Amino acid sequence: MIRLAILASGVGSNMQAIVDAYKFGILKGLAEVVLVISNNTNAFVLERAKKENIKSVCIERKNFKDEESFNKEILVELQAANTDLVCLAGYMRMIDKEILKVYNGRILNIHPALLPKFGGKGMYGHFVHEAVVKAGGKKSGATVHFANEEYDSGKIILRQEVEVSKSDTPEDVARKVLEAEHKIYPQAIKKVIEENLRG
Ligand code: GAR
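That is the input. Now the predicted structure with glycinamide ribonucleotide docked in place:
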């Protein structure tokens, strides 16, 4: 069983989709979430973890003197949980070099657009959907990719398109994209486990 750790800053609907996928769906018998880490005390993802009986920890940047010690604490928790694969699920911070080195090729991120479009610094959450609507694009979607040292630029694992109509607001696009995210994140995890993690 592959041990997943989830890093999330907010609502955690992707975390829930991953949990549901091993309880009832395509990740059954393949993976389980053993740890949820949030950088935000008020994040609803922490409530979800409690409800699912999953260990959760809140590691807030403001409680550490610098980025290095903050990230060191995240790494300590990941390793203490014997994490095999790290899933960033609405984690609104850059992942640190040291963590990338230790979990090389084993950190996934989900982005709410069709990368390489609408990615990069400052492109997260509602900003992405606002930019898509402003650009008048006919489609958007979700992308799961490997994390690296630059925002949203690692190797793409899976993408799913959604249609955007002229009358769609950023909130409409967000809803459609989120639905696609919930489908492809478990699929991407399965793909990585089958292609990269199994000997
Ligand atoms: C998701 O749409 C995810 O793609 C996005 O935040 C949302 C989190 O939702 N992530 C980013 O924008 C990161 N660049 P959730 O907390 O309900 O899973």
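The domain at 2-197 is CATH 3.40.50.170 (Rossmann fold).
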